Amino acid sequence: MKLTFSDEAEAFRQKIASWLAENLGGEFAELRGRGGPGDEHSLVSERKAWEARLHAGGWTGIGWPKNEGGQGASLEQQVIFHEEYARAGGPGRMGHIGETLVGPTLIAFGSEAQKRRFLPGILQGLVFWCQGYSEPNAGSDLANVKTRATFHAERNEWTLSGQKVWTSLAHESQYCFVLARTDPTSVGHKGLGFFLVNLQQAGVVVRPIEQLTGTCEFNEVFFDEAVCADADRVGAVDGGWQVAMGLLGFERGASTLGQQMLFKNELADIIRHAKRNGAARDPMLRQRIADAEIGLRIMRANSLRMLSGSSDGSLQKEAMIYKLYWATWHRNLGKLAMDVLGAESEIVEQAPYGLSRLQAMYLFSRADTIYGGTNQIQRNIIAERALGMPREPRG
Amino acid sequence: MIRDTAASFLAEVSSPAAVRAAMVRAEGHDQQAWQRICDEMVWQALHIPESYGGMGLGYVELIALLEQMGRFLFCSPFYATVCLGANALLVAGTESQKTTYLPKIVAGSTATLAYTGSNGGWGADSIELIVAPHNGGVVLNGKCRYVPDGASAEILVVAARSKGSHGMSGVSLFVLPQETAGLTRSWLPTMDQTRRQAELVFDNVQLDSDAIMCEPGAAWPLLEKIIDLATVAIVADQVGCAQQSLDMTVSYVLQRVQFGRVIGSYQAVKHKCADMMVKAESARSALYYAACIAAEALVDGELGADLASAASAAKACGSDACFFNTGTAIQLHGGVGFTAEYDVQLYFKRAKSSETFLGDSAYHRERLAQRLLDEGAGDEINL
Ligand SMILES: Cc1cc2nc3c(=O)[nH]c(=O)nc-3n(C[C@H](O)[C@H](O)[C@H](O)COP(=O)(O)OP(=O)(O)OC[C@H]3O[C@@H](n4cnc5c(N)ncnc54)[C@H](O)[C@@H]3O)c2cc1C
């Protein structure tokens, strides 16, 4: 396990750190520390403008290959980018889904024409994307997707009908990648297609859903004969599942270390409150604060292990435990924050329901163990894929 | 590499039958196996610098070895000799003590460290043995308890404090051979029979000045470093135990059938196994990080400054993981897990002695909390 970065990498760190220091000011100063988990509904147009600024500085698509318009940055450099970005209080990335999910998926599975059509908009921070996987009856059991895609040979296009749900930031996105059934007689993961659907059309209705935080970050998305050109289908007509799974594989990666920097800032915040209000003298809270620090150290060591291990992106054991570990840790941190604040934890910053950062973190952290594969599903995955135990029976 | 060599050698000398045979011997280990380690494997010399006759490898390799020893419940004076005795000499010995004793360890002499008194704590306050000046040397009076392999170790490093001193002040370290007049050693029978502990009673034990290790009365910072290095090492044993308990459990639940299915197909069982893997892997991550830091600390590198925190983080999480995994192993084995015949109980007992030794998880979390929350702690979290 390597504990330090190369000199070359440290020089790269200097470069991104000073660019951020220069650019995350002026019109963008208010974005510092905003738009992260629990705050993703905030300052949306400002954060979109920030994406374009990032592009102007050459800081979008840094992990993409050079010949696809990216920077071809090494894994080490990407880690440093994310660390410095979080350290500087860089705002939650509006372009996150496009850059980390859609881009790599098109680079791996897309046609040349699709890459030419969609990658530039993502890189320039002009086109925003959302993820249309979950449906009312397809959550953990994603293969149960029922949204129908029907091909019209004469127009060489598809029409989609059905409903997606929990679609984060759909109301702020132009495009959605949609998993839909191309073969109406199929069941399970066979007979699914993967479509890049323009949301700005008559056949699409996006309805925000209020979350327990009182704000709206996710939506229901209704498709009623929504149109999608055949050229905007990725992979084989019945090969959408492979594309969808490939995409999920891109969800982990270099950004995890950046996420830890956010976590670290939150814990530092909690420690400041504990010292101020005397919670730091409570023996039980001392144990829990130390435990949170230990968890943070474990996540960091775990990432260093991932980085020192295979760089070909193959999933290792320490990677498999990661989602379950961080989600549970963060949910506990939310509870710890409230317990440290004591009576004051109840009082919101602003009537009627303007939550403080830590309150929003506490509430939003309940979602961490649900999205991206619930804790129970993570345990199934670990047991089945890492430990070789029997698969769950299916109904 | 070293991991695979260690695993295949230990599979032979530390088979379940060999462990059970060693457990009932007075000294708690098989002398022949220890001799083979010293002669064939030369593991006792692994991290001792070449200038003292050692192999000059690092702490990371040592940790890989210890992890396998935990996995195979290895009964041996290795930990006490290398992770307590040799480390103490390396960190606090004078040059002449190092040249006297380290080559002896390389040649197969056993060693240990004694510092805790009857109070059974693990910090500076736990030192109860009293030292006083005497004829240009010193005289020791009092007791040390819970000393690993304390009744058989040939070289002893002991901590004592000056009368009336408290906490970190007044602490000194000494190195002495086992045959020292006034010293009485006796085994303390233990619940975990794969390890031996002893009580050392000092009745007017007189030592020459050349037994004094570092600056008299100011030894605590060095002793703390020795303890932290030993702490990282015991976590390796915990990780090995935690992993082996998981492996044994998975293989058991995949062959045991109830209600017409292997019990490993029930989700309640699968999820417990998944949790065991999370515990083992996260403790391993904390351990590997701490091992890198320990390697740095041994050469006084800059990153070594994080040793105390890294060791406490690893011990807290290693203790929890090892207890959880060995306890869950018994649960998922059902009735057979409660028998003397099945090995899971041996891991469960070893887990408890590893957890207690050098401080349990609550002790180490509190130690971290002091660094994070108390007077002098900055607002920055050091990561
Ligand atoms: C804040 C947030 C943002 C989201 N954003 C998106 C998005 O942008 N795009 C998108 O497509 N989706 C999104 N989701 C949806 C998310 O992926 C699903 O909520 C998740 O997969 C769980 O599905 P479900 O809600 O239908 O719950 P269910 O699958 O019905 O699960 C309910 C409970 O049953 C348990 N359970 C289910 N199956 C099993 C099993 N086999 N074994 C044991 N326990 C089981 C679950 O663990 C859970 O506790 C988001 C969700 C949240 C909370």
TrEMBL record, chain A:
Entry-linked InterPro entries: Acyl-CoA_Oxase/DH_mid-dom (IPR006091), Acyl-CoA_Oxase/DH_mid-dom_sf (IPR046373), AcylCo_DH-like_C (IPR036250), AcylCo_DH/oxidase_C (IPR009075), AcylCoA_DH/ox_N (IPR013786), AcylCoA_DH/ox_N_sf (IPR037069), AcylCoA_DH/oxidase_NM_dom_sf (IPR009100), Mycobact_Acyl-CoA_DH (IPR052161)
Entry GO MF terms: flavin adenine dinucleotide binding; oxidoreductase activity, acting on the CH-CH group of donors
Residue ranges occupied by any Acyl-CoA oxidase/dehydrogenase middle domain in the UniProt entry: 130-224
Gene3D superfamilies associated with the record: Acyl-CoA dehydrogenase/oxidase, N-terminal domain, Butyryl-CoA Dehydrogenase, subunit A, domain 2, Butyryl-CoA Dehydrogenase, subunit A, domain 3
Reported cofactor(s): FAD
All residue ranges annotated as the Acyl-CoA dehydrogenase/oxidase C-terminal domain in the record: 239-386
Coiled coil: none
Residues covered by the Acyl-CoA dehydrogenase/oxidase N-terminal domain: 6-125
Listed name of the protein: Acyl-CoA dehydrogenase family protein
Any Pfam family matching the protein: Acyl-CoA_dh_M
Listed GO CC annotations: plasma membrane
Similarity section: Belongs to the acyl-CoA dehydrogenase family.
